[in-house]
Structure formats: C-alpha cells, structure tokens
Amino acid sequence: MIDPIMHSSAAITLIGGGEANTVDLKEALSIAPICVAADGGVVLALEAGIMPEAVLGDFDSAPSAVLGQIPPARLHRIDEQDTTDFEKALARIDAPVILGAGFLGGRVDHQLAALHGLLAFADRPCVLLGRDEVILLAPPKIALPTRAGDVVSLFPLADAAGQSAGLKWPIDGLNFALGEKIGTSNAATGPMSLQMEQPGLALILPRRLMPDVVAALCQPDAARWPARGR
Fold first, then answer.
1. Burial 17-30 (b: 16+ CB within 10 A, else e)
2. The domain containing residue 184 runs over which residues?
3. Same domain assignment for residues 126 and 168
C-alpha cells in the first residue's frame, strides 16, 4: 500500500505533459482548485502562473531549470519505472476526484497508458480532459444532465456489464469486452444514468459536462470502486 502525498477534501487538478494549454488548466482549476503536476506537467503550470502544490514523478521530462523554480519540499521524486508518471500521481493523491489535463491527445501510446491508469487505479476517481470530450472510468453509479442527442460512448477496458437509463440504446443485458462488444456512438435521450456491476467501462462524454461529472463524483454518497490488487 502506497501512502498518499496529497490529501484534499476538494477535487484536485493533475496536469501532465501531454496536449493541454493554459486555457485547459485554468478551466480545470476553476472546478478543481488545487494543482498537482505529474513530471513534465510542471512546465505548463508555471507557464500559466500557477505554482503546483506538489510535483510527482521520476523527473525525466521536467527540465532541471523548471524544477529549480519549485520549492524543494514540493518536489517528490519517484524513481521506479514500473508505472507511468500518471499512475505514480494517482497512487499518491487522496481526493474525492482528480481532474487530469495533459493526458489525452498527442501520442496514442500515451493515451492508451492513461486509460490503463484509470482502470489500474479504479479506486481513485479521475476525469481526463480532452479537446472536445472528457473520459472517466464509469463509477458504480452516476447520473448526469445530458441532453437529447449528446454522444455517450462506452468502451471496455475490461469485461463489464451494467444497466442504463436515458440512452438511445440501453446497455442492460450486454456484456462489454474488447474484441467482442463495445458501445461507442451511443446517444442520450435526455438526462442519463448508469449502474455498473464492475469497473471496466470507459465513459466518454462531451467536454461541457466536465463540471457536472466532477460534481457527481464529489457527492458525499458517491460510490467508489475498491482498490485493485497491484
């Protein structure tokens, strides 16, 4: 068990070194006001005039000149190479939800690694911010104010099943699995809700729903997945 470095009763913004800009970061911080950087994400934080509360990672993509601008007590070097910097951060942040910017876009292998991190750390609710969409691991249950026609895509990272309301094509009775059944390009008929039987389904939604998703995951009674063996 890894002891968290960051504890917060509010949502935390985690900034990575991928495709994100100062607008993305400031929008994220308006919802999740505490900033933590994963390795190279510290560059964007400082460009935006934000001093991160902590910088986590192996520091192989953060220039030493940039790290030199951070108070030493906020630098947390993690040298192991079995996990990505995103996973290193997820393992050490204890918050109701993490809002991640700079983990989507760019190299496909990096994006796939980020999706792997969502599942590997299913007990750490995290919403990844993309250019037009947000992606999260579907929690045990969630209700959102989608509008009729909103694209709601469901993609299995592992075998998964559940029930839905408010989708054009309900998922009840379906067994999602890679190479067998996916649920991309579904559509909302109005407000939607999901109840999942196990962690494994990536939920992809319009970016404008980011505040609603974060609010739903921050509810005191929001259900969370248990920690996976790792």
1. bbbbeeebbebbbe
2. 142-196
3. no
